TrEMBL record, chains A, B:
<feature type="domain" description="FAD-binding PCMH-type">
    <location>
        <begin position="37"/>
        <end position="218"/>
    </location>
</feature>
<dbReference type="Pfam" id="PF02913">
    <property type="entry name" value="FAD-oxidase_C"/>
</dbReference>
<dbReference type="InterPro" id="IPR016169">
    <property type="entry name" value="FAD-bd_PCMH_sub2"/>
</dbReference>
<dbReference type="InterPro" id="IPR016171">
    <property type="entry name" value="Vanillyl_alc_oxidase_C-sub2"/>
</dbReference>
<comment type="similarity">
    <text>Belongs to the FAD-binding oxidoreductase/transferase type 4 family.</text>
</comment>
<dbReference type="Pfam" id="PF01565">
    <property type="entry name" value="FAD_binding_4"/>
</dbReference>
<dbReference type="InterPro" id="IPR016166">
    <property type="entry name" value="FAD-bd_PCMH"/>
</dbReference>
<keyword id="KW-0560">Oxidoreductase</keyword>
<dbReference type="InterPro" id="IPR004113">
    <property type="entry name" value="FAD-bd_oxidored_4_C"/>
</dbReference>
<dbReference type="InterPro" id="IPR016164">
    <property type="entry name" value="FAD-linked_Oxase-like_C"/>
</dbReference>
<dbReference type="InterPro" id="IPR006094">
    <property type="entry name" value="Oxid_FAD_bind_N"/>
</dbReference>
<keyword id="KW-0274">FAD</keyword>
<dbReference type="GO" id="GO:0071949">
    <property type="term" value="F:FAD binding"/>
</dbReference>
<dbReference type="GO" id="GO:0016491">
    <property type="term" value="F:oxidoreductase activity"/>
</dbReference>
<protein>
    <submittedName>
        <fullName>Putative FAD-linked oxidoreductase</fullName>
        <ecNumber>1.-.-.-</ecNumber>
    </submittedName>
</protein>
<dbReference type="InterPro" id="IPR016167">
    <property type="entry name" value="FAD-bd_PCMH_sub1"/>
</dbReference>
<keyword id="KW-0285">Flavoprotein</keyword>
Length: 470, 470
């Protein structure tokens, strides 16, 4: 059993730390973006060094006081907000933002966990390198949080998730021991892969304090196009065509449903998709090509062949960087339209690629038979990752669906399970989906997850209630 | 403490398994390629199904009998041979060779652990797909062993190690519980990454019985060249040039030292490198390009620019698939020359890319000051992975160096540690390097590795003495 963070413990801990490290949590530390979970006012530690993180965890472990690691607060599954149980200490990495090292010739950067993703990207860019992890909240989200949740985003198809971009981590275990693993190595087969075990564990196995990351040579040419497609199956055919024509150089392949643009229009957002009438399905694609390749001819060739094969109905190829950015801005605006309409439930799912067209059709049919809803299905088609979100019919609000929301959500998860998919492709489990994980997860895997948690954090102080229920 | 596999346990286990599952180990199950470790005659189980694997592990766990998983027997660190301690059961996956599924359109294949790597490659090729893991022993090595050791090879630069090619695993834990994780998903953030924890754990945390793997579209054009370079630093400059010119499409970049070809000539191997006189350093490079790229012009442009910049002294670009194969055959023959000369010690190391030229110079100087030796340094330069092997001077045998061998080996490892490198880049720890891991590994990481081992295999039956000492 955990103990609450109380005044005597506060005094003991404060004596071990530099002045100003212990504070009160601000409102931003207690909220999460969808406003469904709320933390309680209480203590926050903002250490400046790994040694201070070690001191904090060691003391909390000895006193059995819970610790909630906090990055940028942008997580969508309430991994960063603990609404009940014994009052925890929030551990914010916001003052650990140093660049530990930059080796452009090696394509490696080492940064502290509190640096924002955008700052990592900028630092790499200034050295002529690309750090490809890219997602909507990158200005606020920290790299430590990205790694702790194994974040995805729009460039996974080519460059992988946060896990695949990480070469090494420095991390502090629950008992305060520090693993110094900021390796700059591409290959290292010396024992168990604790790095990948900690990445994606959402702060429940260790606290990441710094990481070494892979950089890339930026592609010499970026080609971006928005194409109208007759169906999700055609979109997949188009992706196969792109991969054949452009080798491993497809860096983005996003499915867009008409509903996304309808929502933006309905809520007064000024967006002008280039098709009239709007097709039901569109694809935003990006190729990152080397200098000696004829980029425009490659993209035009893909469009011509897709049109001939019936995989594309219409298309716009960006003729400048500004046009490319405009096409991406349309894609990036979709979550804002969703927020303005207000979802009944939101699902970050992944599916075997071959199952996606069937899933979209069958799930839509089943859910619409349950209630008069609208579905906005969009996302990272190349990764099999759909954001499958349910919305009220026009003229209704989400409140009208309150009695049905749980049943609708369950229906989505049941269908995902039936198609061998995942109920959390990139957002993680947090506290929002622990019951779903317990229900749909493989029993042997869950048992071993609990064994690993007990082995690495025997007192259970690290992010209590996240990933695994208390 | 473990118990030996004895007659009463044999009788109990045999009663639980289909006839013919329990056998005697053959000589090939008791040897390892370098002939330095030797197993003892004893029992072997060759199950046909995952359920039989579960039965075997459950029974061995209850009786505290050690189990040594066995794939193709090609491992170089004696992970597959247990020379002492209570007699274990060897668990060979050689009868589990089924194709579980093939989805060419999804770029996914699912196979049982006993299928050879070559058979996985062939099955993919027949479906028009590429499984890029490639290494010298691929005709014998099994995919289960490749995954259990996180094998590397010659295509890691572009496609990653075995870990990065694996989407999911079916595995049996020590207590016989089966994790059914043959996912075909690109993204899945539902809890701890037990897959990557088990991959590379060399059979000490679970037994992999099947895996789902990533396939790729084969590149439309393969361009292969052998270039003479003035130094390892120039070879790295050449790699950077290739990456700029060919985006992420460099699939192989191998450093070759003149010593490798000298050894082949000295031992009567018929090999004709295309340079006379032979340069001290060469690079074998491969590009895998999409159809619309002008491959020959790209490779010729790389060579011209490299020559102008002083990064290449001479070069041969393969003009046919046959010539490309010949160039690769020269690279692949190097280990045979090494075997014929007989190494004093062999090191599979990785280093930060920027440290490699310094390391090669400094380590060579230090070692040659200790003894009159020859060094063959070659390998996967793009991954920072060198095979750094020490050989007798001409006219001497390895026996002449016996009194010095340990000191030479220690000197290599000390220098690797000083340069923040790894003492095992791709071969693993096995039983050969447990003392080195204990000496050079991060203490917190080692402590947590032991905690993980105790959590997942409390009786310690899985591959006793491998990775972590008994």
């Amino acid at each position: 059993m955990l103990n609450p963070f109380d005044a005597p413990f506060r005094a003991r801990l404060a004596a071990l730390l530099p002045e100003g490290t212990l504070r009160e949590a601000a409102p931003r530390h207690l909220a999460e973006p969808r406003g469904r979970w709320q933390g309680r006012p209480g203590p926050l530690a903002a250490p400046r060094t790994t040694e201070d993180v070690a001191t904090i965890l060691g003391a909390c472990n000895a006193a059995r006081v819970g610790v909630v690691p906090w990055g940028g607060g942008t997580g969508l599954v309430s991994g960063q907000v603990m609404p009940d149980g014994p009052l925890p200490l929030i551990l914010s990495l916001e003052r650990m933002t140093a660049l530990r090292g930059l080796w452009p010739g090696e394509n490696v950067i080492a940064v502290e966990a509190g640096m924002t993703l955008a700052a990592v990207q900028d630092t790499a860019r200034q050295a002529g390198r690309l750090f490809p992890l890219s997602l909507a909240s990158e200005g606020t989200a920290t790299i430590g949080g990205n790694l702790a949740t194994n974040a995805g985003g729009t460039q996974v198809l080519r460059y992988g998730t946060a896990r695949e971009l990480c070469l090494g981590i420095e991390a502090v275990f629950a008992d305060g021991r520090v693993m110094r693993g900021l390796k700059r190595l591409r290959k290292d087969n010396t024992g168990y892969d604790l790095r990948d075990l900690i990445l994606g564990s959402e702060g429940t196995l260790a606290v990441i304090t710094a990481a070494s990351l892979r950089l890339y040579a930026p592609p010499a040419q970026r080609l971006v196009a928005l194409m109208a497609v007759p169906s999700p199956a055609a979109a997949q055919g188009l992706l196969a065509l792109c991969e054949d024509r452009a080798g491993g150089l497809v860096s983005g392949f996003e499915l867009i449903s008409r509903m996304g643009f309808d929502f933006l229009a309905e809520t007064g957002h000024d967006i002008r998709p280039p098709f009239d009438p709007l097709p039901d399905w569109m694809v935003l694609m990006e190729l990152g090509l080397p200098p000696l390749m004829d980029g425009p001819a490659t993209m035009a060739g893909i469009y011509d062949e897709a049109a001939r094969a019936g995989l594309a109905l219409d298309g716009v190829i960006a003729q400048s960087e500004a046009q490319a950015d405009q096409l991406w801005a349309m894609r990036e605006a979709i979550p804002e339209g969703n927020r303005r309409i207000g979802s009944i439930s939101s699902h970050d799912i992944s599916l075997p690629l071959g199952a996606i067209p069937d899933f979209i059709a069958a799930a839509g049919e089943r859910l619409r038979a349950m209630a008069d809803i609208r579905i906005n299905c969009f996302g990272h088609l190349g990764d099999g990752n759909l954001h499958f979100n349910l919305f009220p019919a026009r003229g209704h609000g989400r409140g009208d669906y309150a009695p049905l929301a749980a049943a609708l959500s369950d229906a989505v998860h049941e269908m995902v399970a039936a198609y061998d998919g995942s109920i959390s492709a990139e957002h993680g489990i947090g506290r929002l989906k622990t019951a779903d994980l317990a229900r749909y997860g493989d029993p042997a895997r869950l048992a071993m997850m609990r064994a690993v948690k007990a082995a690495l954090d025997p007192a259970g102080i690290l992010n209590p209630g996240a990933v695994l229920p208390l």
